[in-house]
TrEMBL record, chains A, B:
It catalyses: 5-amino-1-(5-phospho-beta-D-ribosyl)imidazole + hydrogencarbonate + ATP = 5-carboxyamino-1-(5-phospho-D-ribosyl)imidazole + ADP + phosphate + 2 H(+). Signal peptide: none annotated. The keyword Ligase applies. This is N5-carboxyaminoimidazole ribonucleotide synthase. Catalyzes the ATP-dependent conversion of 5-aminoimidazole ribonucleotide (AIR) and HCO(3)- to N5-carboxyaminoimidazole ribonucleotide (N5-CAIR). One of its GO terms (biological process) is 'de novo' IMP biosynthetic process. It comes from Rhodalgimonas zhirmunskyi. InterPro entries: ATP-grasp (IPR011761), ATP-grasp_carboxylate-amine (IPR003135), ATP_grasp_subdomain_1 (IPR013815), PreATP-grasp_dom_sf (IPR016185), PurK (IPR005875), PurK_C (IPR040686), PurT/PurK_preATP-grasp (IPR054350), Rudment_hybrid_motif (IPR011054). Belongs to the PurK/PurT family. Homodimer. Residues 111-296 form the ATP-grasp domain. Keywords: ATP-binding, Ligase, Nucleotide-binding, Purine biosynthesis. GO terms for molecular function: 5-(carboxyamino)imidazole ribonucleotide synthase activity; ATP binding; metal ion binding; phosphoribosylaminoimidazole carboxylase activity. GO terms for cellular component: cytosol.
Amino acid sequence: MTEPLAPGSVIGILGGGQLGRMLSVAAARLGFKTAIFEPGGDCPASHVANFHLQAGYDDTAALTRFAESVDVITYEFENIPTSALDVLEKLRPIHPGREALRVSQDRIIEKDFLTGLGLTTAPYRAVNSEDDLRAALDEIGAPAILKTCRFGYDGKGQARLSSAEDATQAWADMQGAPSVLEGFVEFSHEVSVIAARGANGEVACFDPGENVHREGILRTTTVPARLSASQRTDAVLLAGRILNALDYVGVIGVELFVTPQGLIVNEIAPRVHNSGHWTQQGCAVDQFEQHIRAVAGWPLGDGGRYADVVMENLIGDDMDRIPGLARNANVAIHLYGKADVKPGRKMGHVNRVILS
Amino acid sequence: MTEPLAPGSVIGILGGGQLGRMLSVAAARLGFKTAIFEPGGDCPASHVANFHLQAGYDDTAALTRFAESVDVITYEFENIPTSALDVLEKLRPIHPGREALRVSQDRIIEKDFLTGLGLTTAPYRAVNSEDDLRAALDEIGAPAILKTCRFGYDGKGQARLSSAEDATQAWADMQGAPSVLEGFVEFSHEVSVIAARGANGEVACFDPGENVHREGILRTTTVPARLSASQRTDAVLLAGRILNALDYVGVIGVELFVTPQGLIVNEIAPRVHNSGHWTQQGCAVDQFEQHIRAVAGWPLGDGGRYADVVMENLIGDDMDRIPGLARNANVAIHLYGKADVKPGRKMGHVNRVILS
């Protein structure tokens, strides 16, 4: 893409969840129209989009119609079926590109990619049988964590092993799916870098946020994170190396463990990321607009931050806290318009602006 | 309204322009669905709303259908035909209420209301003929400005008089419409207060912004405004008095002239206001969300400001400046999705965050 996409052009978004919703609002803010491709009805993104094409990823005719109705395609989740991408990419540019999806769709390929760049990950071994698992445990040691290579999110598709005795159950939990055993990393805390690369190769990073998870689900992200100046530099350089290696266009989320020996990459997500939601309150250009800018060939925001923020996810029954939260000054509420409250379901988030 | 409206409820918005668009996004952020009533097709608000009912304000069946599909009704402009309000208010609550519309739809009624509260306005006289105009000019003196009582905005329906010689032309410009002659006020600058009143009577004000107009159209609003502490207090108290007198629910814009003798009320607008757009960058709860909160019976944000901001409108060919503006760090761009660029047409705005 050489020319920036003009306002009035249509951005196609694969996936109609909360990330698609916030991408759609950001695109509208830049004067774009938006089209959502999502099998589900009444999806969060459709509430704030121009068009919603409700069809499955195996519906070639619908995919074709969708692609032909938009100027560029992006997505809110990495597990887009390859067959759908084959249809779409013949018709319109897709950002971020296939390579980013290929790498991030499979934990083994991702870790091979990262270590190939000279970055540090937790020790890992591919596991395709209980025997593999026992051999991997011998090498890596316990405790360790077994994860399916594909389709895991929010702690789903994972089993923790305290000792070799847990191997049979853990492997059974994977239901035969190709998996990876990851060694435990002794880390003080987790941070993530939300970084972006533009169509012209420029890179911009937001200030790293510090993440707290519970039951495998992100609960809070706080900026600024507890990081030294050199750790901050390392985080930014590392994100830039990943983006350049993938010839990436868009926003990426890079989760990092902070250890005395340096930063260890946990995982990458080729999309806007829950740990970047704080940017909605702290930055002139938030991660959603940053992503749309990249995808549309616009100049990126510089990632500058002008407020301290604590982002907290509202999960399941946290919705009951809304009346109280609404009475808090300096708390910005972001709800996703999901009809049904379910345990573990991300219903919204709040950004608490910390005034100095 | 005693119970706050639950997320998932539907907010009906009369008017599909940029204010409706930004109200719709704010409502979505709180988990509401939105329905736009707007005669025009492909209107800015419809791009980010759940529903758009395209019909005229004289279409009783459409108005009825609209009201029955929503939980509460608000609006983005004050010139809603009385006959439409008659249909709508029988079916659903409308906020702000009829009294605010009655007062603000007519410049004479508005000025009578304001002076009745003990507030100061420019000297004014009702004008219904050229003879009236000459008599009014004798009393008020020149220079002065003649305005139609109704339907004026962005400098439309106005004529300036340098002397009595301009009377014939000025009256002709009004095309026979009931008008008001306003005396000139010697003011150093104009500010506006964006204030809100909740369903329970609580009042919250944003920090006053300083406005610069050109050719009758707002160009920039800057916060903080040049105001002394006592002027700031006066501005807030005055806005509160207006809100309480109208038993108001929602956001109001109050334009004020700053003079050595105190603050003079220029006009009020019973809706979110162009001079409050800066709140999108400087506040946890912006004017659009504040309005939705009030209308939905939610607690209000406290109006606290955590950044200095200069808002600049993008008018007509200013759209050509977008590529350059997009390269500016700390500039947040807000475009309205209008298909056609026209001279004098508000196409978008930018909020420049000023870092200390």
